[in-house]
């Protein structure tokens, strides 16, 4: 934005100087060189921003793909634990960090139903609570990183 403003300023200043004929050749040459330098920097900045935009698009695509793969792995694990479709939905919401009340509201059921489903999920998975359940899936991801 600043480079665009500066470039525009120098264009108007150069044109104004040429029309008035007041300033000398040296002054016009300096302004023209500054204008060219700003224009070159502006060109490369625009290219860089476009490049970053493309990289962001690629990374968003990768993130969406990886999120889909993680969801697929989670659903496969839920199937191995013999979770019902309702329990699978509740398990996903527990892992996301929603409270029992929020899950009940989202699923249009009573909080007591969600608590019962959560108990079944923990029993079938062999974990004591939501933290261990979430850790089951995060642990594999964390093993990819070296600390």
From TrEMBL:
The chain crosses the membrane at residues 26-44. InterPro entries: Sig_transdc_resp-reg_C-effctor, Tscrpt_reg_LuxR_C, WH-like_DNA-bd_sf. The keyword Transmembrane helix applies. It holds the Pfam family GerE. It comes from the Bacteria. GO terms for molecular function: DNA binding. Keywords: Membrane, Transmembrane, Transmembrane helix. This is HTH luxR-type domain-containing protein. The lineage of its organism: Bacteria, Pseudomonadati, Pseudomonadota, Gammaproteobacteria, Alteromonadales.
